[in-house]
Specification:
about 40% helix, alpha/beta, Beta-carbonic Anhydrase, Chain A, two-stranded antiparallel sheet
Length: about 190
């Protein structure tokens, strides 16, 4: 959609992540801003091929929507005041047309957890990292390093965290959409 939008305006150069106006009129730039700010929902989706399938299924059933999509591992927000939560709250304030948050995930098919801890770390580095994680994030190093795959549980935890967050602008509804093994999308409000 953004490429279609940009192709209509000859006076905009696109670099990864940036729109740089050329010698365009203020009216053209205002139109770009208006169309870009027309988000009506915020979607938090996972990362990976199965997450792509869930997102594709969700977007297919939501043809009238224009979502702002955030990606994160496990669709799980651990830190209620961390950078992902801050970005979500900032987006809700910046785009007042957003009135709902969707947390997307899948049910069943629990995959084994994997570790993001490099096997090549020396003991000193591993010890330093463990100390920093446990003292700065409040999480155990086991929790931080090992990625679980229970997306339905993580989606509900995240929905509960966001719905009850004191800084969340109101009125915002938080909904969870989970794709089951048969490819059906079940939607529930938090």
């Amino acid at each position: 959609m953004h490429f279609e939008l940009l192709s209509r305006f000859k006076n905009v150069t696109m670099f990864p992540g940036f729109l740089i106006p050329k010698q365009g009129s203020e009216a053209e730039m205002t139109n770009i801003r208006k169309e870009t700010l027309a988000y009506d929902s915020l979607v938090l989706a996972g990362i990976g091929p199965k997450a792509e399938l869930v997102l594709e299924q969700f977007l297919h059933g939501q043809e009238q929507k224009n979502p702002l999509i955030f990606r994160c591992e496990e669709v799980h927000i651990w830190d209620p005041y961390g950078s992902l939560t801050r970005s979500i709250i900032s987006a809700l304030i910046q785009y007042p047309t957003i009135h709902e948050i969707w947390i997307l995930g899948k049910t069943g098919d629990r995959e084994p957890a994997f570790s993001i801890m490099s096997k090549n770390l020396d003991k000193q580095t591993a010890s330093t990292i463990s100390y920093l994680i446990s003292h700065l994030s409040g999480l155990s190093t086991d929790c931080w390093f090992n990625v679980t795959s229970d997306e339905s549980r993580n989606a509900w935890k995240t929905a509960h965290l966001l719905q009850n967050h004191p800084l969340l602008p109101r009125p915002i509804t938080v909904k969870v959409a989970l794709l089951d093994k048969q490819g059906n999308l079940a939607v529930q409000e938090s």
